TrEMBL record:
It comes from the Eukaryota. Residues 216-248 are annotated as: Disordered. Residues 234-248 have a biased composition (Acidic residues). This is Uncharacterized protein. It comes from Forsythia ovata. Residues 220-229 have a biased composition (Pro residues).
Length: 248
């Protein structure tokens, strides 16, 4: 598989993509994380194998300017990013910007191995925005990963490490969750979310009372309150992903 890394085809005589200087890692040589139940990415693995382990085609929306992945394989994109973020990045950095470049490259580099993100298909400006979008996806999945680890510490304690974490990484996660800065940030976030819940409840009550005394009045429906612990459906699905790299 390392032979095709950074190439848009089978690695033959094609020059590597322009991100190649960042990606000096073979995804299969990395230590595997713990298995976590039936894989939801086995179909992607089969597609990859049936394509002779060459990058699968994928497009990006440059016309509308979202730069999000499109096409039949886009549904696997964010999940692949999330899987490799959990495998290669330690969940104790304050933000994605603070993650060492080596860990970032290992987390996002496998995207280019599974998908044909070829700069020849796009203008230089569009390709830069596509790469930035991949980084943004990784940052979002990293935030969710940290949230999952923090919730585990809060709900289950620190005796048993979070799945897939080594002892030294687990210790640093505990230290981070115990820091004054972390606790203060979480307290502020909780207060803001609680305030939003209370405001939504107030608006719902006000709307109901006005409609009771003025049946004909047309009022906008208040938006539903945001969850205190947001978890998008896609991210929730990713919690059941298996480390499928060892199956390749």
């Amino acid at each position: 598989m390392a032979d095709v890394l950074n190439h848009g085809g089978d690695g033959g005589d094609e020059p590597p993509h322009e991100h190649a200087n960042r990606l000096q890692v073979d995804c299969q040589t990395a230590p595997a994380a713990k298995k976590r139940g039936p894989s939801r990415s086995l179909h992607l693995v089969k597609l990859f194998q049936s394509n002779r382990k060459r990058p699968l085609p994928i497009d990006f929306d440059t016309k509308e300017g979202t730069y999000l992945p499109t096409g039949k394989n886009q549904k696997y994109f964010s999940r692949v990013v999330g899987t490799h973020v959990r495998q290669f990045v330690h969940p104790y950095f304050d933000r994605w910007a603070n993650v060492p470049e080596e860990q970032k490259a290992r987390a996002t580099g496998c995207v280019y191995e599974f998908f044909d993100v070829n700069p020849r298909h796009y203008s230089k400006a569009d390709y830069k925005l596509i790469v930035d979008g991949i980084e943004d996806t990784a940052a979002r999945r990293y935030r969710q990963y940290k949230a999952n680890v923090n919730a585990y510490i809060r709900d289950k304690g620190t005796d048993v490490p979070y799945r897939g974490l080594t002892a030294d990484v687990w210790v640093k996660c505990i230290e981070r969750s115990s820091s004054k800065k972390f606790k203060a940030t979480n307290a502020l976030k909780y207060k803001m979310e609680t305030y939003m819940h209370q405001m939504n409840e107030f608006m719902t009550l006000l709307t109901n009372n006005l409609q009771a005394v003025m049946p004909g009045i047309q009022l906008p429906t208040p938006p539903p309150p945001p969850p205190l612990s947001p978890m998008h459906e896609e991210e929730l699905d990713s919690l059941n992903d298996e480390d499928y790299l060892s199956d390749l």
